[in-house]
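Hi Y.,

Following your request, here is the sequence exactly as I used it, all 104 residues.
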Amino acid sequence: MIPMQTNAIEQVPAGEWRQWQERTNGTLLDVREPIEWAQGTLPDSTTISLSFLPASLGQIDQDRPVLVVCRAGNRSQFAAQFMQRNGFHNVANLSGGLMSIGLA
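Below is the corresponding structure, written out as C-alpha cells. Let me know if you'd prefer a different format.
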C-alpha cells in the first residue's frame, strides 16, 4: 500500500498565533493532556488530547482553518498531519508550541 501524500503543514510562529486567528477566523486546537491544560492554554481553545483525536474529529469543523498547538510543537505537528490525511484541508501547526510563548 502506498502512503497517502500530504501537503506541507503551515508553520505559524508562536508569536503570531493571534494574527493567524484574526486573519483566518480559525479554530485553536490544544492536543496536550488535561494536566497540561491546567497550566494554561490559548483563549477559546478547543481541548482534545492527541490520544482522543481520532475518535473526536467529528467535533471539529472541517470548513474552518485549524491551528493545532501543544507544548513544544511535536504532538501538534503529528496531529495536524493526521487531520490533513483525514479530510482537513486548512490545518496549521504552532511552531515551537506553547513553550515559545510562556504557557507550558
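DSSP finds four helices and five strands in the chain.

Thanks again,
Q.
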